[in-house]
Structures are given as C-alpha cells and as structure tokens.
Write a structure and sequence with these properties.
This protein has 369 residues and is mainly α. Among the domains are: 164 residues, no CATH class; 78 residues, no CATH class. It contains 16 helices and 2 strands. β1 and β2 form a beta hairpin. α4 packs across α6. The longest helix has 26 residues.
Length: 369
Amino acid sequence: MPRLDSQRVILLILGAFAAGRALAAPQDARAGPAPRDRIDALVERIAKGDEVESAEAARRLAELVVGPVAEAIGALDGRPAGEQLRLRAALGRLSAELRVRLLRLNVPAEDRALLDAFVADNEELVLRLFDDNYRVRQAAVQQVPLARNSGAGVVLAAKVNDEDEDVAITALEAALKLADPVVARGLRRYVHDATDAVRTRQLPNMERELLEALGRLVSESIKVLGEARDAGSVSTIAEAVEFFTEANLWNERSSLVDAIQALDRIGDRRATPVLLKLVARPQMIQRRDIEGKSVTQTVGDVAMLAAARLNDIPPSALNMLSPAGDPAFAGFADEEARAAAQQLLRERLAAGASRGQEPRPAPRPGEGG
C-alpha cells in the first residue's frame, strides 16, 4: 500500500491529543530532574495554546527534558562505535518507553492490567511496536500473538492510532482475526474519539483527503466491532454512521454497507433507529436474476434487511426477494415494491413488531451470520 503523508498526519494529530491528556495527568512516577510544575505548565500550553504558543512550549519542553540527557551523552564522535550504537539504541528505547507509558495512562484499569502483563512477557516486541521506524512497527504488529482476552487486544487497538496508515491497516487486519472483547473495547474508544474529533472540529486545517482517510480507518474499525459482536458499541457505531454519511466522507457501497452489516452481526435492536434512517438510500449494490425477475439490491435494502432481522421480521414478510442459500442478498424487482416495503417495515415496528429495545441474544463469534 502506498504511504500517504497526509494520511499519517491525521493519525499523528490524534495521537498528540491523547499524549497531551496523558502527560497532563497526575503521576508521581513522572517526577524527575525537571521541575514538575514547569513540565505541567508547558504541556498545558502545548495542548491549549495557539499555533505559535504551542510550538514555543514544545521547544521549551524539549530543552527541559531532552537537554540534560543530551549534555550527559555529549559528542558521539568522541566515543567508540560500540558505545555509539548502545547510546543510539538507548535513545530509541526512551522514545518507545514514552509512547508505551502514555498508552498505559490512556486505557481503563482493566486494560492497563492486561497491558502490563503483555509488556512483561513481550518487552522487546512492545518496544518495536513503538519504534520510530514505521517499518519496524509494522513488522512488530504482524508478530503480536493473537491470544484472546490478553494485552494483545490493547496494543493492536493502540496501533490503529499509529501515525502511519500502513501500520494502522496492518493492526486492523490483525484485530479482525482476533475480534475479542479487549480489542473491541479499544476500537470502540477509537471510533468514538475519532468521530468526535472530526465532528467538533478539534483537528485544525483538515483537508478532505485527511478526513476521508480517517473515515476509512473508522469504517475498518467498525468491521472489527461487528466481528466481535460488541453490543456496547452500538451507539458509537450509530453516531459514526450518521456523521460520516451526512458529511459524505464514506463510500456508501463499501464503508456504509460494512457498518450496516456490522450492526446486523452484533444483533442489538438498539440499532433499529439508525437503520431506519438508511432504508431509502438508493445506491445500487448488485443485481440478481431471481425467478425470472431482475432483482436489484440497494444500500437501503441492506439496511432494511438488517432492521428486519434485528426485529424478527422475515424478509419475505416485506416482499423482499432472495436467492436460495444467500441470506446476505435481498432486494426488489421494482421501485414500487421497494417503497411499499419501506412503509410496511415502519408500520410493523410502530405497531410493536419489535418487542422493545432490549438486545436480542447475539451469536458467539464464529456462529450465525
């Protein structure tokens, strides 16, 4: 996959937001030679000041924190090659350690304990996951052991917020294979934070290319949430669906359809309202010949099918046409039948076809559709 600088920028900005919050949090372990109050003040100015103030505060923070280390090391040219290599490796470790500690501060207690155990068992791998070189990070992501309910889910979710898109996509591929409650918790937070950051314009000077790049990562994260059957993410997915579709930042035939199918897989009736808003989407996805009729399926039909299944309404009750053995396809031979089905679905739901807003039992991963 080509590496696009603009796509890395948006992830780096999001990472900076998280880092700023973490550095500002009280932590006795951060006490060091530099006065704590000065560090706190500079971090706040970096996070909250204007562009000029933030840049100046970042420079001063570097002088305050990095300066003593640089002075202690001195000129590398005067040291033997072996010493230079060890010192450079140590500097790289400092950068990685900082990123790991920031991650630890930004996850809930249950995930923090899993992360600590994962770091204890995989220290060198974790350092490579947060290396300065994106190729090293990407290779490390591919080496994460996919153990369920472990710190693997914590680090994979964190790598979705990597500043390099290739690393993020590689992490999402691994997360989709894992699809356990731990990685789902992390990606639920990621989808919420990313959607909120764009919607509330927290990210300055955002070009459309960057917004679309972030939208793709959010969409891929939602696919993982669907695979994990994460019922706790329904409201978060619904918010993302509404924002990214209204902002026209998703490809409807791919990202929106993937999100609808994720809600279908999760199997929670609380997704019904957002699905109903989508049933009239006219974009055609595919066409099939069924019983001598040319049947088309639109994005809206996919939403209608999901809403019907969530509320135990057979697609046939809405006069949807499906080929034998393909439960993912259901559509209509003409627009009149489609419009009638949309109205019928709303009437059935309004009349109480749904048994309330309680979630229906979701199938275990690997079972059902």
